[in-house]
């Protein structure tokens, strides 16, 4: 039930274009921790999926990374999030992952 509520909140945020506002950024941080963390580890240091810390992603391009977020990685367990995220939101997540050190 909580997951359905989160999905509805995320879907509601996809209608707006442009960079996410502060409230949406909080929702996206939660998505990274909750949903990305379920495969990439709670600290994003790896698990089923590879590590996605800033250190592990060093040298990656934000545009390329946002494409992976939106479209997934064929042949892997990485799903595409295009139905739930705008391109601007995926880019924000990519920038967040590339610049935020996780603890």
TrEMBL record:
Pfam families, per database record: Cytochrome_CBB3 (PF13442)
Molecular function terms, GO-annotated: electron transfer activity; heme binding; metal ion binding
Entry keyword Thylakoid: no
Signal peptide residues on this chain, from the entry's feature table: 1-17
Family matches, as SUPFAM superfamilies: Cytochrome c
PROSITE patterns xref list: CYTC
Protein name (database record): Cytochrome c55X
